[in-house]
Structure formats: structure tokens, C-alpha cells
């Protein structure tokens, strides 16, 4: 606190005044931070000894825990007993559940009865129309569509793909509508936005698995739970981006509309909403991507489709087959992504109608629809509805052989380096174990304090409060030690992710062919269902925490690499040019110009890395991470709501702590 | 008022309107300098040089009548207007004292039918806020505001909407076009808002598009047009509703200089063709002088001087205005009415007679050619004459002290 | 501007509320029984657990139902515990292979609510135990008795188990008393959960390939046993009731005759299929044969079932309802 004292500059001698001024400027760097931390420090000096005396300084004091497992288990048992008779279920939730079932099964039936040929025809022509009938992009999009669906069929996954597609379509429609309505509210009303914001923020860091358990309790296992979980998971980005778009509407245009005497409703419909189209479409894109990933995860609670294929393949340790089921997921993602981004481009550009009239507007839709119908009927009469088995291509065995070869050669017996299994053991011994011991041996109040201080430095008082409360919540719910175990793995995972991600990102930002080569790999890694990594990871790193960390790193790496590359690329060209003109070496350019200027992007990468690593905690439970991940899996598989939910809540709380300690809040970064 | 103007519009000069600036300045000025008497009570009132027309102006109802208008931003906005305690404070002092910013301070003026009323000032002078207050796009804090004698501030939502739809249309600095609509649909937007059937509004919009010279571009999107073209769309959109008044908020500031000039001429042309009342906001003095019949010069939310271009240039109200107009080529703004020596002419014939509204630079040309003093004749009556020395005094700025005095 | 926004919001909210109310008033109590036997005319939904043995049961049952009884069959991937919930609500009609891991649910649904009924023995006897690879047992013959395990603890040390020996556990959904066993038998071991059967099998396979020592929780019948030679470690013998107190267990696992369970509703509605499922009974060897076809030879379950059924027509005939 000594830095707070600043000398009074002498008032008469101006030459002398310069020096203290400089000193003042220097101390000003630490000055505001120190001053801001002062109240916190005072609180600590008073409270920490008190807490230590009252409850001891080891692990979280037992006196301060609240048992939530028993009430949760009771609630679960009550629900199970009364689900069939209680009016809340009978008149409310059961309707919802039945609606979910019937809507999904009707779409599935529709797709299946239609048969593969009409489905391909319709999707191809639809994509073509959306891409523009006389546009090269339209043709390209149609090609992508055809290839994607054909490969799904060739891999023998046609039916599963249709099941997934059906569940997804229903989920996307509902989440888009729900999200758009929420976004509309948040975009138009400040108060509504203030209420919604914390929910959206929390949803963003909530691991997908955490939704599943409570839904299973209410809706039981099956399609309704899966659908509702997917909707809950996928609606927030739509709401967020719709609100963003509505709020970001060009004020000039809005004013012009007002000056013409528009009524509020007219202004919304003719100006504000159309102006937000790009954001809304981006929201739709995000919603589609998230629902696709959730539909896969939801196979754990009986969603069926491709996710179930992946899961089933894993039970026989058949990576090849799991991959064959995973590829259609990637292809669906690629297709939807292209579709929405091309649609977005066209909306933005607003091409001038020229050329043949029937290739534009509603005429083009008619052309597409009529030809799709004609072709479908023709195809339907010539082909049978089921995908012909003889066309299937078996990729399972070659993939399995390749994976076997790869893992066995990497796992052990690499000269000098010893192989991945040795590394994994060392990683556990020298990094994970000390980290875990360090955390669990630290006094509980110190950890709460640490979370508070870090969050305060990152995001101010509200972040500080959130982080401290979340950290304390973990202790109160009685999962302190398990959470710290998970935390140690998460920290190790984040560090490894960042080191690798920054390294790859820096290289990719400088060498463009590497970036080009990496892009499809990253895309695939991001959309493949996380489960697919299970087997290779265990084969290479042994069952245990190292394998869990490896899976998390694999999952989080693509996003970190991408954000890093983009951040570095976007560094102002003029600044880089100036640095080069002064003869800075490559290393100097990176260290002194690119990295400092890309700091916001790197912070975002850190935050994303944290969120994604944490999302993999539960998958980690499937490869031997123990701790919270195992608890959630245990809860899910054994219907032990108490254990599972408590662990799920703890993961969310950990997420809050890590998010608040790594996220610079919007306001502060905007002020910079 | 209108009938007073019509004869002017039909003068022979009218034929080559807009061919050159000078000619244009001639015509517009001819049409309005008569009613230049500032009825406003701005801080610095221009010295009226108006003749008989002044009385006529006083009788006719102004399009906009603005009295003691205030717009204060801040949480305690209501306490500022009319509070003697804050009256003399500068903006910065006011902000430290109250936390409020007074964008418009106690402004009063009238806009007469058919004139181009320019509000000029540097950025932050409150001119854009002022023009938005006229249709309550920004709600004034206090004061009175009338359009054709009707109290704007008392209007309910529907009446206000009617005002915006039919009586006053605005053109914006950044165009404010809807990017997802074609040019035609943008122009028709205001009509659509009014509930006009599609065919009818498109027909009308097409006519407006033609009027601003954008034929053939009806199907384009705003993003595919140049800045100047976009502003033409904005202009057409404003014109489509056939409003009584056009409000321009720095319409050409975002455009390149050459295009800006084109657009100014476009406005001048439209004005001379239709005689629509215009309120024109600009920070560009030469633009103000070119298009304005009367100019209100604003500084820190107050009107420093209100008068004809000639008055502003010829008789700046204070040092701030003087500084502002220092570099203006005076001979292109001041008229021979200012430069002439009043009195009878030497001869009864006036072969090289000048109109009193002719600018000095024209007179120089005429005098230089003939080599002798020229008579200033209005309605066949001789008002006085100008000779070389009188004209040179204007160019040299020697007349300034006299006028000021 | 703000006022206008608020208005829009008000209108939107009002519309949404109105819509919601009409929606609610339009419907009364919903009916349960979606999916499962309720949904289609005689479609049977079989619950499949994550291990291959169960998959083999279901594959054969499905094949016979479809080919001999002309019944449409849906399979759904559900874990053991939740399968009972599914039978209760009618989302699934039958569990082919229950290892007795959810006694609470059995008592709740079968005894209390009577929404689930017993379907009889599967004929397969399940057994859980601790296993070591044969190459290890050959090297240290006395390792197959739990009393000697402490002597070899250091052989089984891994990074995860630290100073103790590692006892590899499988999926959390499996029935296990191992933690208590280790404590009560005073063994210097630690359970390490693989978290999923896939992870456990991968680990076993890799270790087996490298001829490394390992000790694992394992069970029979299991298709992997045909690929790996495992030897069971003797635990104190099972006596009835010795595992009743989960904290004090100090005995090995019972021989469990695996059970079938059916949804009561399904039994009422689809007598033919229910009778067949009740009759369905085969041996450990039968199941292993099909399971190995699926898991080791990577046949599709349908193909494997077809092959087995064609070779065992006499067995199948006995299952069909008269």
C-alpha cells in the first residue's frame, strides 16, 4: 500500500517538477489497481483470520456445508412416483412431452416415407435456390448438399441421419422461434435485457451435459428430454444475436424512418427487424450448430439417430464405426453452415435482379419447388425408399486398422521420447498430482479469496462477487474436494490448450498455407461428437486424468487456434508495416507488435479455452477423470439425481469462477 | 407572399437558372431578399436592409415559428431553461455546475414560406439538435414551436405522425436508407407508411426518382450506389410525400466536393421549380451562402446572428462571425444595393442598368466593360449608381466599418 | 424512441400471453404412453444396454419378432437403471438382461406400482469378479487368491493409483462393491473408474497387447473373453445376504441368473410378443457366440442374429408362442 503516497510537486521550480511527475506517472500504473484492491484487502485482513479461527484452515469446513443430495434424491423419488398422477405433469409437462414426441416422430416419418431420393432432390434444389439459381455459389452449394447427403447414405447411415435431421429440424425451429422472441424482448426493452442477460451468460458456460439430468427427471428418458435439452441449449445464441442485431440497428436509418412518421410497429417491421437480418441469420446459424452438437450428446438420454450409432459403436470399441456415424454429423454441420452463410451473404449483397425473371424471387421458388416435386415423384417411382445396402462403403475396418497402428506406435516404444503413455504417466505424476495436492491442501478461504481477487482484477466488483459466491457455493454443496480435483485438471487442460493453441495459432497466422491446411481439420474437430475421441485417447494415454485432459485439449484446441490466428491477422497492417520498416525481426514483430495488439483476441481465446475445457469435464468422466465428471456420469447412468445434480451444479459454479476470472467485461475492454 | 415571389421567378434570369452560381445567387436572392427582415430575436440580430417587403413578411404566417426554444441534455434538464442563475454560463461551466449540456439555448426565429432558411454552425453548435426539435425527433425541453400557427409541442402521437408524414420531410447526412430495399422501394417507403396502395406509390416514387435524375437505377440497392446517388434517393424519398417543408440535416457533408456542388445545385433547382420551404443545416459557410435566403449562425446552442448572406458577410454581428466570414469573397455575396451611392442617376436612360440584387462581382464586370459608373434600377426606378471606387471599396472591405457603424 | 419500444414490447407480451392462454385452455389432461407399445399397432420397443451381451439378446429377439411374429421392433439405447423408468412410462416394452443393479427400482415398479412385470430368466448366468490376464497368472500362480494380492500391489501401480495397486473399474452403471471390498479385505488397492466400458476395454486391450499386468473388475458372459484369456481372482465365497450391507461387504459376487422385465401394459396389449419374450431363454455360450460376431467380427447385430437363428432353429422354435 506504500505506492499510494505521491510526493507533492514543488510549485515554484518548474524544472524540478518534471521528475516527480514522471515518478507519479510510473506509480500510477500500480496506483489504481492498488487503490481498487484496498477495500478487498481490508475485508480480507478482517475476515480471513476470523474464518480460519472459526472453521479451521484446511478443506472446506463441514459446518458450512448444506446437504442438497438428500432433498434432490427425495425430489427425484417423489417425481418418479407422482409423474403419472400429479396435475402439473398431467396437464402441463405431459402435453409438452407428447407434443415433442409426436412432432419429432411425424418429421421422422415424413423423411423416412419420402425415401432417400426425394429427400436428396429436395434438399439439393432448395439449397440451390437459396444460393441463387443463376449464381455460381448456388451451384456450388447444391454440389455440397448432394455430396453431403450421398456420403451419409454411402456410409450406411441414411436412416440415422434422417432421425437426427428430424430431431434437429424440430429443435431448430422451436429454438429459433423461442430465441427470436426472447431476443425481440431483449432488443426492445432494457429491463427485459437486464433480466435475460445473466441467464444467457450462464447458459453460455453451462456444459451441455448439465442440462440432461434434470430434464430426465421431469420428462423421463427419450425424445422429449433430448428435444427440450437441445432447445434450451440452442436458443440462447439466437436470443443473444437477435437482441444484438435489434440494438445495433443503424440509428440513422431508424431516425429517418421515424422522421417519415412511422408508427412503432411499422418501424419495427419495416426497419429494425430487416436491419437486424444479418445478426438474426448468424443467430440461426449458431442455433443450428449448437442443436446439432446437442442432438448427438442427447443420445445419452435416448435421442436416437447418429448419436446413438456413435454410442453403440463405442460400446464395442469400434472407432471406425463411430467415425462412420460421426462423419454424417460433420457433413450436416458443413451443409447447414454453408447454407446459412451463403443466405447471409446474399441478403447483405442484395444482388440486382437481372437476367431471366423466372430465376428470381417467388418465381424461382416455384421453379425449384415444381422441379423438386417432379424429380421426387419420378425418383420415388423408380427407387425404393430405403437406401440400397449394396451401395454402402465400409470405412470401419480400414479406420480401425489405422487407429490401431497409430495408437500402438505412438503409445509406447517411440525411441528416446518413450511414447504417449509414458508422457501421460509423467503428466499425471508431475503436473496433475502436485496441482491437485496444492489445491486441496490450500486453506479454503484462501481459494475463495484468490477467486475473488482474480475476478476483481478481470471484471470489477460484480465479477468478484460472482466468483467468490460461486467458489463458496462449491464448498457449501459439499463437493469441495471433487471440485478441486476437477479444477486441477481443468487448469492443466487450459494451460496445455493455450500453449499449443497459441503456438499453432502464431504459426498459422504467419504461414498462410498452414492456415489453409488447418482450416478443414479444425472444422471437423469442432463438429465431430466429443465421444469419438474416447477410444483413441484411452489407447494413447491410459485410463485416467491424463486421458481426460487430452480429450479436453483436443476439444478446446480448434477454437483457441482459430481465435488466435484471427486475432493476430487482424492486427493493424499499418502498425505491422511500421514495425517492419524499422527493421524488426520476425520474432520481434510477433512479440512486440502482434501479441500486444492482439491481446483482446488472446483473452477471448483464454476464456473460450476455459469454457470448452470445462464442457469436456463430463466426457472426461467417461475416460477415467473421476471427480465431478464421474459423478455426473454416475448420476445419469444410475438415476442418482442427488449425486449427479450436485456435481452438475458444481461444474457450472466452477465454470462461473473460471469465466469471471478470465473474462474482461465488455465495458472495460470497450473503454480501452 | 407567394404572389410576391412569382414575378421574380418569371424574370428572364430564371431561364438560365443554375447555370452558374452567380446567376443562381441572383435569382434566389431576387426572390427573397425582400423579406429578409429578421423577425427573430436571436442574440445578434442582423441589421435589416429590407425594403417594403418587410411589412408583408411580418403579416404573413411563418411556416415555423420558434420562440425561446431550449434543448438540454442531462438528468436535471428541466431546471436549466429560464434559470437566470445559469444564463450567462458557458457550456463547460454549465456542465460542471449542473451536469447538463444545453444543445439549444433560448433560440427564436421564424421560417417563412418559400424561403431557404439555413442554420449554420460548427459541429457541436446545436444545429442538428435544433432541426430535430422541429418535428420532435428530439423532444425540446422548453419553449414554443408552431407550424403554420399550430402548436407542435401540444400535438398527440397521431397528430405528430401526420406532421411527419405529410408536412415536414427530412434529408439526413448519412442518408438513412433501408439497405434491404431497392431504390424505388426506398423512395416509396414514406408513402407505404401512409398506407398508399402499392401500384400508386410505386408510380409516384418512379416520378420522384426521375425528378432527382436516377432513372434506370430503380432496382438497385443503396449499397450499390455512390454517396451522391444515395443522397438523391434520400431527397426523392423526402419529396415523395409532397411535404410543405423540407428539412436538410447537413445533407452533403459526407459527399465529395464536386458531388456536393452538384447536389447543392440540385437543391437550388428544386427550390426554384417548386418554391418549397426548406430548412437547411450545414457547417459549410460557402454552402450556406450559396443556398440560403437567410442564415442563422449558431454557436454553443445560441443564434449569434440571423440575416441574409449579405448581412452576415457585410455586417458581422460580432468577432466570432467576423472571423467566420473573413475569407468569403465579398464581391460574390454583397449586392450593388450595398455598394451603390444612393441618389439619382446622371441620365434618364440606363443602358447598363444593374438590378439592386446583382452581386458586386457582376457589377465589376459590367462597369469594367463600359468604363463608367452604372445605374442601379429597380422596377424602372433609379436607386443610385455604382462606380469603380464604390465597387473596389467592397472588394477591399472598406465598406465594412461603414455598414457596421 | 424509448416509449415506442416499450409499447411494442407491451403488445408483444400481450400477444404472447393471449396465445399461451388459448393454448392452455385448448387442452385437458394429456395421456401418457407415448412411444413404446402405445404408439403403433404392435410395435415392440426393446431396451438395449451398453454392453454387447445385451445387444446380442436384443438382436436375436428382434430378428425372431420380425421374421417369425411379423412384429415391428424398435430398439432404444438405455442404461440399466433408466430402462426401468422407460418400462414404467411405456417408452420401452422390455429389458432383456437385467443384472440386478437397480433393486430399488425393481421394488418400486414391480412391487409397488405394478407397472413392470418379471419376464423370467434369460438363461444366462452373469458373474462379476476380479480378473487378471492369464500370462500374469502363469507367472505368479498365487496371484489368483485375494489373500496374496497385497504382495503384488506394486505390479499394478499406475499414475492414477499412486502408491497403491490399481483395480480397474468400468462404467459407473455397473454393479460394484469393490471400494468396500478393498477396505474390508484390507487390500492395498485403489479403484480407478474408467468411466465407460469403451474406455475400460480399450485399456484392457492395450495392456493385454503389451503383456502388462493388470487387475480389473470384469464379468461373464462377455464377448471380449473370447479374445482375451482372463483368470478370475478368488474372493471370499458368496453367501446369501453377505452383500446386504453395502458398507460391510467382504465377499465375492453372486452368480446372477440374468432377468428379463416387461412393461405391464405391453404384456396386456401384445400377448403374442410378450409370451415370446418370456419364453426367450438361451445359454452363456449362445450369447457369447452372437456377441463375438457383433463385437469381434464387426458384424451388424441383425446379420449376427440371422446367422445364429438359422443355425439354431430348434432353440428358436421352442420360444415361439403356441
From TrEMBL, chain A:
It is found in: Cell membrane; Membrane. The chain crosses the membrane at residues 37-56, 114-131, 138-158, 164-188, 209-236, 319-336, 364-385, 444-477, 489-511, 531-557, 601-628, 640-658. Residues 161-340, 483-662 form the ABC transmembrane type-1 domain. The keyword Transcription regulation does not apply. It is a multi-pass membrane protein. Its main location: membrane. Residues 1-23 are annotated as: Disordered. Keywords: Cell membrane, Membrane, Transmembrane, Transmembrane helix, Transport. This is ABC transporter permease subunit.
TrEMBL record, chain B:
Residues 89-325 form the ABC transporter domain. Residues 36-55 are annotated as: Disordered. Residues 41-51 have a biased composition (Gly residues). GO terms for molecular function: ATP binding. Pfam families: ABC_tran (PF00005). Keywords: ATP-binding, Nucleotide-binding, Transport. PROSITE patterns: ABC_TRANSPORTER_1, ABC_TRANSPORTER_2. It comes from the Bacteria. Belongs to the ABC transporter superfamily. PANTHER family: GLYCINE BETAINE/PROLINE BETAINE TRANSPORT SYSTEM ATP-BINDING PROTEIN PROV, GLYCINE BETAINE_PROLINE BETAINE TRANSPORT SYSTEM ATP-BINDING PROTEIN PROV. This is Glycine betaine/L-proline ABC transporter ATP-binding protein.
TrEMBL record, chain C:
Keywords: Signal. The keyword Mitochondrion does not apply. It holds the Pfam family OpuAC. CDD domains: PBP2_BCP_2. Gene3D superfamilies: Glycine betaine-binding periplasmic protein, domain 2, Periplasmic binding protein-like II. Residues 43-310 form the ABC-type glycine betaine transport system substrate-binding domain. PROSITE patterns: PROKAR_LIPOPROTEIN. Residues 1-26 form the signal peptide. This is ABC transporter substrate-binding protein. It comes from Streptomyces beihaiensis.
Amino acid at each position: 500500500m506504500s505506492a499510494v503516497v505521491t510526493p507533492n510537486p514543488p510549485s515554484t521550480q518548474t524544472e524540478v517538477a518534471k521528475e516527480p511527475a514522471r515518478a507519479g506517472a510510473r506509480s500510477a500504473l500500480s496506483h489504481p489497481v492498488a487503490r481498487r484492491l484496498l477495500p478487498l484487502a481490508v475485508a480480507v485482513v478482517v475476515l480471513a483470520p476470523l474464518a480460519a479461527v472459526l472453521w479451521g484452515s484446511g478443506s472446506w469446513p463441514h459446518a458450512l456445508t448444506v446437504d442438497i443430495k438428500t432433498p434432490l434424491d427425495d425430489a427425484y423419488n417423489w417425481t418418479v412416483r407422482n409423474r403419472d398422477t400429479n396435475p402439473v405433469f398431467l396437464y402441463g409437462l405431459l402435453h409438452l412431452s407428447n407434443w415433442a414426441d409426436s412432432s419429432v416422430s411425424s418429421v421422422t416419418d415424413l423423411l423416412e416415407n419420402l425415401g432417400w431420393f426425394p429427400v436428396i432432390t429436395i434438399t439439393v434444389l432448395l439449397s440451390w435456390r437459396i444460393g441463387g439459381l443463376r449464381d455460381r455459389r448456388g451451384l456450388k452449394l447444391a454440389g455440397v448438399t448432394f455430396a453431403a447427403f450421398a456420403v451419409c447414405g454411402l456410409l450406411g447411415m441414411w436412416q440415422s441421419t434422417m432421425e437426427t435431421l428430424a430431431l434437429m429440424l424440430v429443435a431448430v425451429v422451436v429454438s429459433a422461434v423461442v430465441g427470436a422472441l426472447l431476443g425481440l424482448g431483449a432488443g426492445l426493452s432494457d429491463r427485459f435485457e437486464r433480466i435475460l442477460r445473466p441467464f444467457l451468460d450462464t447458459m453460455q458456460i453451462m456444459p451441455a451435459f448439465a442440462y440432461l439430468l434434470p430434464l430426465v427427471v421431469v420428462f423421463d428418458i427419450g425424445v422429449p428430454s433430448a428435444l427440450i435439452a437441445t432447445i434450451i441449449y440452442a436458443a440462447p445464441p439466437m436470443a443473444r444475436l437477435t437482441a444484438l442485431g435489434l440494438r445495433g440497428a443503424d440509428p440513422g436509418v431508424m431516425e429517418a424512418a421515424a422522421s417519415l412518421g412511422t408508427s412503432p410497429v411499422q418501424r419495427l417491421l419495416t426497419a429494425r427487424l430487416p436491419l437486424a437480418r444479418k445478426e438474426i441469420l448468424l443467430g440461426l446459424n449458431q442455433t443450428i450448430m449448437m442443436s446439432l452438437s446437442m442432438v448427438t450428446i442427447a443420445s445419452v438420454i435416448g435421442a436416437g439417430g447418429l448419436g446413438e450409432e456413435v454410442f453403440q459403436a463405442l460400446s464395442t470399441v469400434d472407432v471406425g464405426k463411430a467415425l462412420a456415424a460421426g462423419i454424417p454429423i460433420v457433413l450436416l454441420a458443413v451443409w447447414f453452415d454453408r447454407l446459412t452463410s451463403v443466405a447471409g451473404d446474399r441478403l447483405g449483397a442484395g444482388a440486382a435482379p437481372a437476367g431471366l425473371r423466372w430465376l428470381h424471387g417467388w418465381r424461382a421458388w416455384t421453379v425449384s419447388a415444381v422441379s423438386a416435386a417432379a424429380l421426387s415423384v419420378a425418383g420415388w417411382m423408380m427407387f425404393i425408399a430405403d437406401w440400397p445396402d449394396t451401395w454402402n462403403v465400409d470405412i470401419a475396418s480400414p479406420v480401425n486398422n489405422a487407429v490401431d497402428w497409430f495408437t500402438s506406435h505412438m503409445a509406447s516404444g517411440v525411441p528416446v521420447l518413450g511414447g504417449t503413455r509414458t508422457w501421460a504417466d509423467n503428466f499425471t505424476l508431475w503436473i496433475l498430482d502436485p496441482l491437485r495436492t496444492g489445491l486441496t491442501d490450500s486453506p479454503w478461504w484462501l481459494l475463495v479469496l484468490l477467486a475473488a481477487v482474480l475476478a476483481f482484477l478481470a471484471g470489477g466488483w460484480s465479477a468478484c462477487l460472482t466468483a467468490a459466491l460461486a467458489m463458496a457455493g462449491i464448498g457449501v454443496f459439499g463437493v469441495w474436494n471433487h471440485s478441486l480435483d476437477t479444477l486441477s485438471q481443468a487448469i492443466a487442460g487450459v494451460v496445455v490448450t493455450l500453449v499449443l493453441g497459441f503456438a499453432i495459432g502464431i504459426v498459422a497466422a504467419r504461414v498462410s498455407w498452414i492456415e489453409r491446411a488447418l482450416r478443414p481439420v479444425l472444422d471437423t474437430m469442432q463438429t465431430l461428437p466429443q465421444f469419438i475421441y474416447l477410444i483413441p485417447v484411452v489407447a494413447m494415454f491410459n485410463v485416467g486424468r491424463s486421458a481426460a485432459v487430452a480429450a479436453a485439449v483436443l476439444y478446446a484446441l480448434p477454437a483457441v487456434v482459430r481465435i488466435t490466428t484471427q486475432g493476430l491477422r487482424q492486427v493493424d497492417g499499418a502498425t505491422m508495416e511500421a514495425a517492419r520498416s524499422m527493421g524488426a525481426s520476425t520474432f520481434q514483430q510477433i512479440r512486440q507488435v502482434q501479441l500486444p495488439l492482439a491481446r483482446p483476441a488472446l483473452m477471448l481465446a483464454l476464456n473460450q479455452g476455459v469454457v470448452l475445457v470445462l464442457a469436456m469435464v463430463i466426457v472426461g468422466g467417461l475416460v477415467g477423470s473421476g471427480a465431478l465428471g464421474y459423478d455426473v456420469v454416475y448420476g445419469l447412468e444410475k438415476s442418482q439425481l442427488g449425486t449427479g445434480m450436485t456435481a452438475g451444479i458444481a461444474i457450472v459454479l466452477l465454470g462461473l469462477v473460471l469465466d469471471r476470472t478470465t473474462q474482461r467485461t465488455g465495458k472495460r475492454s470497450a473503454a480501452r | 407572399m407567394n404572389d410576391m415571389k412569382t414575378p421574380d421567378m418569371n424574370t428572364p434570369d430564371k431561364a438560365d437558372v443554375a447555370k452558374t452560381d452567380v446567376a443562381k445567387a441572383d435569382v434566389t436572392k431576387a426572390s427573397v431578399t425582400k423579406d429578409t427582415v429578421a423577425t427573430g430575436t436571436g442574440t445578434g440580430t442582423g441589421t435589416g436592409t429590407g425594403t417594403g417587403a418587410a411589412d408583408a413578411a411580418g403579416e404573413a404566417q411563418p411556416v415555423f415559428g420558434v420562440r425561446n426554444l431550449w434543448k438540454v441534455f442531462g438528468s436535471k434538464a428541466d431546471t436549466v431553461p429560464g434559470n437566470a442563475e445559469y444564463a450567462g454560463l458557458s457550456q463547460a461551466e454549465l456542465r460542471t455546475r449542473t451536469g447538463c449540456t444545453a444543445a439549444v439555448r433560448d433560440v427564436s426565429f421564424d421560417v417563412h414560406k418559400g424561403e431557404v432558411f439555413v442554420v449554420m454552425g460548427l459541429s457541436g453548435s446545436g444545429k442538428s439538435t435544433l432541426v430535430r426539435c422541429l418535428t420532435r425527433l428530439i423532444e425540446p425541453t422548453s419553449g414554443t414551436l408552431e407550424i403554420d400557427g399550430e402548436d407542435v409541442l401540444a400535438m398527440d402521437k397521431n397528430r405528430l405522425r401526420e406532421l411527419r408524414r405529410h408536412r415536414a420531410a427530412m434529408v439526413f447526412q448519412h442518408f438513412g436508407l433501408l439497405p434491404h430495399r431497392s431504390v424505388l422501394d426506398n423512395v416509396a417507403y414514406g408513402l407505404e407508411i401512409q398506407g398508399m396502395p402499392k401500384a400508386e406509390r410505386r408510380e409516384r416514387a418512379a416520378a420522384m426518382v426521375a425528378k432527382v435524375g436516377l432513372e434506370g437505377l430503380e432496382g438497385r440497392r443503396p449499397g450499390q450506389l455512390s454517396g451522391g446517388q444515395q443522397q438523391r434517393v434520400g431527397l426523392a424519398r423526402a419529396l415523395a410525400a409532397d411535404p410543405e417543408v423540407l428539412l436538410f440535416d447537413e445533407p452533403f457533408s459526407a459527399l465529395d466536393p464536386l458531388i456536393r456542388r452538384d447536389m447543392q445545385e440540385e437543391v437550388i433547382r428544386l427550390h426554384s421549380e417548386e418554391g418549397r420551404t426548406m430548412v437547411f443545416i450545414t457547417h459549410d459557410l460557402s454552402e450556406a451562402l450559396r443556398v440560403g435566403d437567410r442564415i442563422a449562425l449558431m454557436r454553443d446552442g445560441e443564434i449569434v446572428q440571423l440575416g441574409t448572406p449579405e448581412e452576415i458577410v457585410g455586417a458581422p454581428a460580432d468577432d466570432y462571425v467576423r472571423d467566420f466570414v473573413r475569407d468569403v469573397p465579398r464581391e460574390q455575396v454583397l449586392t450593388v444595393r450595398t455598394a451603390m451611392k444612393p441618389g439619382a442617376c446622371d441620365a434618364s436612360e440606363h443602358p447598363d442598368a444593374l438590378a439592386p440584387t446583382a452581386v458586386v462581382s457582376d457589377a465589376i464586370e459590367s462597369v469594367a466593360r463600359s468604363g463608367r459608373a452604372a445605374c442601379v434600377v429597380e422596377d424602372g426606378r433609379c436607386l443610385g449608381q455604382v462606380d469603380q471606387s464604390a465597387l473596389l471599396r467592397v472588394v477591399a472591405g472598406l465598406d465594412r466599418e461603414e455598414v457596421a457603424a | 424512441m424509448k416509449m415506442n419500444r416499450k409499447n411494442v414490447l407491451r403488445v408483444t407480451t400481450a400477444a404472447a400471453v393471449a396465445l399461451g392462454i388459448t393454448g392452455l385452455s385448448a387442452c385437458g389432461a394429456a395421456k401418457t404412453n407415448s412411444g413404446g407399445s402405445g404408439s403403433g399397432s404392435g410395435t415392440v420397443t426393446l431396451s438395449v444396454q451398453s454392453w454387447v451381451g445385451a445387444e446380442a439378446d436384443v438382436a436375436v429377439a428382434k430378428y425372431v419378432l420380425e421374421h417369425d411374429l411379423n412384429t415391428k421392433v424398435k430398439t432404444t439405447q438405455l442404461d440399466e437403471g433408466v430402462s426401468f423408468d422407460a418400462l414404467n412410462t411405456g417408452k420401452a416394452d422390455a429389458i432383456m438382461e437385467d443384472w440386478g443393479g437397480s433393486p430399488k427400482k425393481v421394488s418400486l415398479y414391480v412391487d409397488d406400482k405394478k407397472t413392470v412385470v418379471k419376464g423370467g430368466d434369460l438363461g444366462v448366468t452373469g458373474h462379476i469378479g476380479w480378473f487378471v490376464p492369464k500370462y500374469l497368472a502363469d507367472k505368479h500362480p498365487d496371484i489368483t487368491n485375494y489373500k496374496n494380492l497385497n504382495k503384488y500391489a506394486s505390479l499394478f501401480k499406475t499414475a492414477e493409483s499412486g502408491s497403491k495397486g490399481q483395480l480397474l473399474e468400468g462404467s459407473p452403471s455397473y454393479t460394484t462393491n469393490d471400494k468396500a471390498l478393498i477396505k474390508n479385505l484390507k487390500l492395498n488397492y485403489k479403484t480407478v473408474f474408467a468411466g465407460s466400458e469403451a474406455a475400460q476395454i480399450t485399456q484392457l486391450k492395450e495392456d493385454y497387447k503389451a503383456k502388462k499386468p493388470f487387475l480389473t473388475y470384469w464379468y461373464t458372459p462377455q464377448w471380449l473373453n473370447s479374445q482375451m484369456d482372463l483368470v478370475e481372482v478368488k474372493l471370499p465365497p458368496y453367501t446369501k445376504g453377505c452383500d446386504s450391507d453395502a458398507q460391510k461387504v467382504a465377499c465375492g459376487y453372486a452368480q446372477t441368473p440374468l432377468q428379463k422385465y416387461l412393461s405391464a401394459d405391453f404384456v396386456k396389449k401384445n400377448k403374442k410378443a410378450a409370451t415370446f419374450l418370456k419364453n426367450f431363454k438361451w445359454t452363456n455360450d449362445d450369447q457369447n457366440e452372437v456377441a463375438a460376431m457383433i463385437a469381434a467380427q464387426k458384424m451388424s447385430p441383425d446379420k449376427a442374429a440371422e446367422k445364429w437363428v438359422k443355425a439354431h432353429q430348434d432353440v428358436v422354435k421352442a420360444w415361439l408362442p403356441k
